[in-house]
Amino acid sequence: MRKIVLFAACLLVLAGCKNNQEGTDSTAVTAAVDYTQVAVPDFSADSAYAYVEAQLAFGNRIPGSKGWQQCADYLVRKMSRWCDTVIVQPFNATLWDGSTVQGMNIIASLNPNADRRVLLGAHWDSRQWADHDKDEAKHHSPVPGANDGASGVAALMEMARVMSAMRPSVGVDFIFFDVEDQGAPEWAQSTDPNTWCKGSQHWARNPHVPFYSAVYGVLFDMVGTLQPRFTRERISTYYAPGLVDKLWTAASALGYGHIFVADETDEILDDHYYVNSLAGIPMVDIVQNSGTTSFFEHWHTVTDDLNSVSGDALRTVATVTMKTIYGDYPHEK
User: Fold this and answer.
1) Contact assessment for residue 97 and residue 151, using Cβ atoms and an 8 Å cutoff
2) 283 domain residue, yes or no
3) N or C: which end of the chain has fewer CB within 10 A?
4) Contacts by residues 12-20 (CB-CB < 8 Å, ≥ 24 positions apart)
5) Greatest CA separation for the chain
């Protein structure tokens, strides 16, 4: 089962969700905002890349492994330095084969008492099986997960660091979803999309704060490729069209129109789907779409290592996102 699902199949799932209400996104583009003039903190590409390195140094972040526990401790320790609160949300997840693993969602917050909030997410686990590797002998080998997992986490870590010193006038919640990438491998021939994204499914049904809500959310997935290309993914445009327009408008104004391209592309089964459909929060997925390959060349292979990640790409996606947030909620001096 690939993360990419047919639109017709996705619509069947959408139709079964109680919170499926197109048009709940009210985040229309504010024409008066000149994104080139919006003040944002200085994002360090080098620091973000170092956070990718640190995650990979723990080894595989497969739920329940030693590296997974060490990485969780590292993320909690780092985010506690910059954020006002950090909550670890443990949960149990049943995988495609009926086995059960323990997961941990990690939620760190700036301005936790603010009524209006923005949700920023990424998944922090790495995949057990390199089932898209060209070498079939490696299909049962773990994926390093440098771009698919660690890149989004690293971008959010650096955003938390710099935003903590220059806070927007809104609450910001950074959430690292677990057990996102343990969906059924190719050989299982599963047709159940819910084998993926277990952490966001749990959080959307059991938010870390009762009655939690956010104005909007942005999900980072595979955002560190050497040749970043982000399209208007169809679930994002279905649930959060205004936010898509806002982000892509900011990117164009900043000279990144060749990276945040105008193409509308097929839906991706990712954490944002459950945040949208179950939690009712309009969330956009900024996810690599190479146009010619599945996401990027090293997706779900043993070569998704540090050589597949660019600090400059992390800075680009973070800057566009921060320009959007601070354009709506400027820093109050």
Assistant:
1) no
2) yes
3) C
4) 13/193, 13/277, 14/238, 14/277, 17/277, 17/278, 19/276, 19/277, 19/278, 19/279, 19/280, 20/277
5) 57
Per DSSP bridges, beta strands 85-94 and 100-110 are antiparallel
Could you tell me the sign of the dihedral formed by the alpha carbons of 27, 318, 170, 86, in that order? positive
Q: What is the CATH number of the domain that holds 108?
A: 3.40.630.10
The answer to whether residue 219 sits within a structural domain is yes
> How many separate domains does the chain show?
1
Q: 285-331 pLDDT, tens per residue?
A: 999 999 876 799 999 999 999 999 999 999 999 999 999 999 999 99
β-pairing, 230-233 vs 216-221, is unpaired
Q: Which domain holds residue 110?
A: 7-328
Q: Are 313 and 296 in contact (CB under 8 A)?
A: no
Q: Are 145 and 199 in contact (CB under 8 A)?
A: no
Interatomic CA distance for residues 86 and 80, integer angstroms? 6
In-domain check, residue 144: yes
* Residue 238: HSE in the Cβ half-sphere, 13 Å Cα cutoff: 20
Tens digit of each residue's pLDDT (9 = 90 or more) over 67-80: 999 999 999 999 99
**pTM value surpassing 0.85:** yes
Nearest to 165 by CA among 316, 50, 39: 39
Assigned token pair, 318 = 């973070």
Among 249, 237, 256, 263, residue whose Cα is nearest residue 317: 256
Length of the chain: 333
- 298-324 as b/e, with b when 16 or more CB fall inside 10 Å? bbbbbbbbeebbbbebbbbbbbbbbbb
Q: Going along 209-267, which residue ranges are E strands?
A: 216-221, 230-233, 260-265
